[in-house]
Design brief:
Elements lengths: L1 H9 L3 E10 L5 E12 L3 E3 L1 H11 L2 H21 L6 E5 L2 H4 L4 H12 L6 E6 L7 H12 L4 E7 L7 H5 L4 E4 L1 H4 L6 H16 L3 E5 L4 H9 L4 E3 L7 E2 H8 L3
Parallel strand pairs: 2-4, 4-5, 5-6, 6-7, 7-8, 8-9
Antiparallel strand pairs: 1-2, 1-9, 1-10, 2-3
Helix pairs in contact: 3-5
Length: about 250
């Protein structure tokens, strides 16, 4: 699998899909999350849950991560050149990427190469990235923020859920994991927990993104508690670049 993945990266056989991020109040597209997809010629579609851990263990994540950033920034800039509504593009990064040497310079190089406005790029990183290297991570994040790029904590609530680190992280938003969204319309404890997360985030001046929204009832709940944005199959599944661009033409 590692060899095939290496070949896929080197031969540009991967693709980027985009899932819309939508304003919770008016349901307008405000952004998109870039998601890596691999359709192997022999095995067919391979889940990111399978190949991303292999990329991390083998060190291929550095090359894969750079490719994802370049593709997402390039696509986002093309949307601007076509005079679509300005939207942000969110790209997932790992702890290894964030703490790697010259990561700021890599981001700067990609922004210059693609000519994308840094304000339109968001980097998503999970809580687990901060367990052992919080101080180092904060320093690097601030260096990258100086370029105009913003950070988002992804899958909030599934990892190192210490509220103390939220005060220290220079982030603009929290993404609530789908596992917290699923029960909000039929479980009072689940609803109360999600409501509390939204309240904590808002009290810290953060935007809140709810992942995995699949029903109108969930949307209405999140809207009532002033969630900022939603993402999920209620609005759209992840789309190939061409299909996502066609969606942008409608707004």
């Amino acid at each position: 699998m590692e060899t095939r993945l290496r070949q896929a990266i080197e031969q540009n056989l991967l693709s980027v899909y985009y899932q819309p991020i939508v304003d919770c109040q008016n349901e307008e597209i405000c952004g998109a999350e870039a998601l890596c997809r691999w359709n192997d010629k022999e095995r067919g579609p391979i889940s990111p849950l399978e190949f991303i851990p292999i990329a991390e263990e083998s060190g291929l994540i550095m090359g894969l991560g750079k490719w994802m950033l370049e593709q997402a920034c390039s696509d986002a800039q093309k949307w601007q050149e076509k005079n679509f509504k300005p939207i942000t593009v969110s790209v997932n990064i790992t702890q290894a990427q964030l703490l790697s040497k010259n990561f700021r310079e890599l981001i700067l190089e990609i922004l210059k190469k693609t000519k994308l406005d840094p304000q339109l790029l968001k980097l998503e990183i999970t809580e687990s990235a901060f367990i052992q290297n919080l101080s180092d991570a904060v320093v690097i994040m601030k260096e990258i923020i100086s370029l105009g790029v913003r950070f988002v904590v992804d899958d909030f609530g599934t990892g190192y859920s210490s509220l103390s680190y939220l005060r220290e992280l220079p982030i603009c938003a929290l993404k609530i994991d789908k596992s917290f969204i699923d029960p909000i319309t039929h479980n009072s404890q689940g609803a109360a927990l999600t409501q509390s997360i939204i309240g904590i985030g808002k009290s810290l001046g953060l935007e809140i993104v709810a992942e995995g929204v699949e029903s109108k009832e969930q949307l209405l709940f999140l809207r009532a508690y002033q969630c900022s944005y939603i993402q999920g199959y209620l609005f759209s599944k992840p789309l190939p670049q061409v299909d996502f661009e066609n969606l942008l033409k409608t707004i």
